[in-house]
Amino acid sequence: MLIDNHNRVINYLRLAVTDRCNLRCNYCMPEEGINFAKRDNLFTMDELCSLSSIMVSQGINKIRLTGGEPFVRKDIMVLFRHLASLKALEDISVTTNATLIGPYIDELKSLGIKNINVSLDAINKEAFERITRRNQYDTVYENLIKLISEGFNVRVNCIALEGQNIEEILPLVELTKYYNVSIRFLEEMPFNGGSKSFNTITWDYKKIYNYISEHYSNIERLASESTSTSINYKIKGHKGSFGLIPSFSRTFCGSCNRLRISATGDVITCLYGKPRMNIREILRSDNSEAKINEHILAAIGSRSKTGFEEQQKYDGVFNNSMTSIGG
């Protein structure tokens, strides 16, 4: 079992399989993209399988695959199959933009992988294409409806962007009336790859809730796990639910149970800090399992209590893009 220096159990790994993405969302990176990692600096699929086994042996029982966009890796199902074979792993999930998941939906279902987070910042086609700078709306919408129809536990993640998609909030909430889906609204975060300056936000989680509550009555707060990052609600008569994630306000830091490992091997104990170490070359060396166990224990043994505390230690952390740090 992994326990950090604040006595928090770390049982959830967000494992990035690539830093590449086939969209160019304007809050994540510049239109021309970022300097993506060279292929040799990325974990191979065999290495990702080995690393996941090591982490599960240390007490990780929940793994979410992230990117970039995970499905740009054409061999991604090799890792899903391996994860499904790990009996101690209780929860396997993936965060995706849903552009490329279509051909894999049936196999994901057969493997018992049911938890899918879809990043979708607009339900209106014009707004979607303006934000993503790509013409993929029809594919994304088709795959989203198929995932819901096939019985996946689908959570749609929408970042509330001042001047860009606030008018999308209510139409997205309206989806919960007809579909058993969770629509979650995130506060904007400053990891945009230098695409713009960032000092504060207008649409925090309280303002998002107030906006929704002005248009819907009979909103009930749902019970959530203590480690949940979202505050969840259900509107009476709706099939689905909606949630708010205070990703900028960081109200959930005290119960954080997450560890991130980037596609290049950076071990990240908090999004608001720099990597603690890199384990790529360690994994490629002899006696790698024992060495990785030692380094992971060292990383979680020096965690900050909150993101605000971590942020004070490092300059320049906000120059990163979300696609390079695993979402």
TrEMBL record:
CDD domains, alphabetized: Radical_SAM (cd01335), Twitch_MoaA (cd21117)
- Give the matching Gene3D superfamilies: Aldolase class I (3.20.20.70)
TM spans (from-to): none
> Which domain of life does this protein belong to?
Bacteria
Please name the top-level EC class of this enzyme: lyase
Q: Which reaction is this enzyme known to catalyze?
A: GTP + AH2 + S-adenosyl-L-methionine = (8S)-3',8-cyclo-7,8-dihydroguanosine 5'-triphosphate + 5'-deoxyadenosine + L-methionine + A + H(+)
Keyword terms, alphabetized: 4Fe-4S, GTP-binding, Iron, Iron-sulfur, Lyase, Metal-binding, Molybdenum cofactor biosynthesis, Nucleotide-binding, S-adenosyl-L-methionine
Q: What cofactor is this protein dependent on?
A: [4Fe-4S] cluster
Q: SUPFAM superfamilies of this UniProt entry?
A: Radical SAM enzymes
Give the protein's recorded name. Answer: GTP 3',8-cyclase
Provide the species name: Joostella atrarenae
High-level lineage: Bacteria, Pseudomonadati, Bacteroidota, Flavobacteriia, Flavobacteriales
